[in-house]
Amino acid sequence: MTAERQTDNAATVILGRRVRPGMDREYEKWQDEVNAAAARYAGHLGVQVSPPTAVQPDWVIVYRFDSVAHLQAWMNGATRQRLLDAGEPYFDGPATQQVISGGTQPTDPLVTVVVTHRVHPDHVDDFLAWQRHMSQEESKFEGFRGTEIFRPSKAFRTSGPPCTAMTTPNTWTRG
Length: 175
Fold this sequence. Notes:
- This protein is of the alpha+beta class.
- It contains 4 helices and 8 strands; from the N terminus they run ββαββααββαββ.
- Helix 1 runs antiparallel to helix 3 (78-87).
- It is globular, with a radius of gyration of 18 Å.
- The protein starts with a strand and ends with a strand.
């Protein structure tokens, strides 16, 4: 499942997606549909899909576009959102996401880091206390702008072992 062209100003997003047990075939069919839709977007350069391995339990999907703007158009577009909604039955929790851009550095001096944690429901309060402590320590670094914690959402709960997803954006001034 690989198709790719190269460009110097390319933007890449790397997605990690855990799939519910027994749903791999359905997920793969759905992912093919998503890839076909992405290929119709302006600036699409290619996609690579890697199934889980013994050391990487997530499906890894890498999309490349010729610019950050074209990548954002795909990532934020109604087509992708509609497909994500349709694929929800296959997902075992939220996806991880990392965006990498090539070429010139953007003029925006801020960097945002989004971290997702799986936390057992019995340990949410302990996790939040630890996260508050970490935020206090991070605030000591020059350029640190803040942390926002999103409490667990029932939408992220899955069958099987109880776990909860939490997302924490951290923003620093680049420098």
